[in-house]
Design brief:
Length: 333
């Protein structure tokens, strides 16, 4: 349920109403916009009389929310959320570009790629320290040592770092990580999501390879229910019957999610397509359809990469892509 307050409502009047709602056993999410304030009620609202509420002098209108996701719902929070990460941001007009190798391999690789992507205009640096792999025999990442190398790259470039978590037990290792990525395979790892909800870290939540947009938003709701509203959603392709691409990039998810939620939505064309030659056109299409950012895999020597070299751009290719993304954004503005 949402309660929209009239313009001119004082803070004291608003707080009195919030206190009354809390006495009814519901949580209240407050969204203060430029023209209106919305109180989103979370919990069992069956005891709250809508007609009585509408008669209050400070109430403009009352409506029930039928969707199961509440905190992530745009009706609760009509204005786009801007997620701040260090000296950069994502959403509400701030376009984020997260770039770097699929996995951290060595110090030289990380330092070189970090400097190159920053020079090209990336706003955050990514690298996998813990790698979920389909085969147990594939490279699983450098783990804690990989995070240390990412932190060194952060000191050298000033770029916030993004890396994936596999297990809630690893959270102590992520204390200095700026953005914690929840990969597609863990999108519905609800115990992990609950633990991330207790942190104040920005969470990059990827859509699962066989999950609906509603399920993605419900996973975001798990994190938000714990008190953490710093979430960026990521479309990275879904599994279909098509075999010419690694996954099928669902760009319709960008406008659909923007209609449903206030959270930023970025696109990962690297994992979606699986081929470097397809990354550029899909990245440009993502920028054109209104994505709040991109996540691009960049490796200084893709042919020698320990993970996903086929879908990684070289630094030179990333330079060229950034120039064209900027042109697309200029046209849109």
């Amino acid at each position: 349920m949402i309660t929209v307050l009239k313009q001119g409502t004082t803070k004291e009047e608003r707080d009195q109403l919030i206190h009354w709602f809390e006495e009814q056993g519901v949580k209240v999410h407050v969204s203060v916009g430029e023209y209106q304030t919305i109180l989103g009620l979370i919990g069992d609202t069956s005891r709250i009389d809508m007609e009585m509420l509408e008669l209050l002098d400070i109430v403009d209108k009352v409506a029930r929310i039928t969707e199961p996701f509440k905190s992530a719902n745009r009706k609760f929070h009509p204005e786009d959320s801007k997620i701040k990460i260090g000296n950069t941001a994502c959403g509400a007009g701030a376009f984020a570009v997260i770039a770097g190798p699929c996995s951290v391999e060595n110090k030289e690789q990380i330092e070189e790629v970090a400097k190159r992507v920053k020079a090209a205009g990336a706003t955050m640096f990514r690298g996998g320290a813990f790698k979920p792999r389909t085969s147990p025999y594939d490279f699983q990442g450098m783990k804690a040592e990989g995070i240390e190398l990412l932190l060194e790259a952060k000191k050298a470039t000033g770029l916030p770092i993004v890396t994936e978590i596999m297990n809630a037990n690893h959270l102590p290792l992520f204390e200095e990580v700026d953005v914690i990525q929840v990969g597609a395979r863990n999108m519905q790892n609800f115990e992990l999501l609950k633990e991330l909800g207790k942190t104040k870290k920005t969470i990059l939540l990827k859509r699962g390879l066989a999950n609906t947009m509603k399920e993605l938003l419900m996973s975001a709701e798990y994190i938000m229910a714990g008190g953490n509203e710093n979430i960026i959603l990521c479309e990275r392709g879904v599994r279909t019957f098509e075999t010419y691409t690694r996954n099928t990039l669902d760009l319709s998810a960008v406008p659909v999610l923007h209609n449903l939620t206030h959270l930023p939505v970025i696109v990962d064309p690297s994992h979606a397509t699986g081929y470097a030659k397809l990354v550029k056109p899909m990245a440009l299409a993502a920028a054109a359809c209104g994505a709040d950012g991109l996540m691009i895999e960049v490796h200084n020597q893709p042919s020698k990469a320990l993970c996903d070299g086929a879908q990684s751009l070289t630094p030179d290719q990333f330079d060229a892509l950034m120039d064209q993304v900027q042109k697309i954004r200029e046209v849109l503005s």
